[in-house]
Amino acid sequence: MKHGMEKQKNKVVIGIVSFIILIIIIIISCIIWYNTSISAVGSGEESKIIQIQKGQTIDSIVDLLKENNLIKSKFAFKLYVKFNKINNYQAGKYDLNSSMNVKQIIDNIVNGNVYEQINITFLEGKTIRWYANKIEQETSNSAQDVYNLLENEEYINKLINKYWFLTDDIKNKDIYYPLEGYLFPDTYTFEDKDVSVEKIFEILLDQTDKVFSKYRKDIQNTGYTTHELLTMASIVEMEGAREVDRKNIASVLYNRLNANMSLGIDSTTYYASKVEVGTRDLYQSELNAINPYNTRAINMEGKLPVGPISSISDASLQAVIYPNKTEYLYFSSDKDRNVYFSKTFKEHEQVINTLKLQGKWYNFN
User: Fold this and answer.
1) Could you tell me the residue range of the domain that residue 264 belongs to?
2) What is the Cα–Cα distance from 126 to 114, expressed in whole angstroms?
3) Which of 72, 96, 265, 270 is the most exposed place for a label (fewest CB within 10 A)?
């Protein structure tokens, strides 16, 4: 009897011990599962930009993270949030990656470590050289990265195939930079400083497409190619600050081309000499230099420069598509960018002499 009771007691003890061991195994397994589930998805740094909206629920946040493969378990994530009593998520964009564990992800969205986008303003009337320096200043790229991409013939061919307004004209061997004038000026938002030059060009060219497409039919009706119109628009941009001046300058360009006259535009000479307008006066040797950009050179009668000389505004594009109808053949700009128009060379000379007397004329050395 006593032996049977001891045997029964041992069974109870063994059962209790077994149960305790089972509980311990379950607890340990749960801890292992939990720690594993809140660890990083991977060791790589596959970046994902996640947008947390104001007032967004934890369920929708968890769904978003799981959809982007940033967490292993939605349940484990919710447990972590509950255990740590987390409820103050900050709205915004976050740059998260697969090497982050749940704690790191939570720390980011609780502390508001939002993804910092950058805004870059590209101005009208600026050259590719200015754009390249701007990209170097605002991003992780160098100016040389810009030039290297522009020299990549395979890349340029790909762009020509993608955008209707880009043609083989930009591959002319005499053109300094194939995308000169085609990168539409505006303020753009980029994901971060590590944005590639290719991505910058793509975003700017997409905007060019939007602007140019508004006038596509009218561009075709002018009888000039898009490249020629853009070249004229860049001259208008450099020579005229006011809308009324731009339409009159465009008229002068058309009138001189139709009369087989050289354009004789100083800004084309600046560009040909790779001198930024306004930095200094031109030398006489530069004015006379034979260059397919320099409309003051001999043998440039009735010819446009080989390509655009700056970025353009919408207003300058409109000016060459819808110019004023005038009889002007000449115009002069003073150092304050005021523009004076003349029908005859005699009138033109009188304007120049007046500007010289007033000290407003550019002096060339």
Assistant:
1) 221-357
2) 33
3) 72
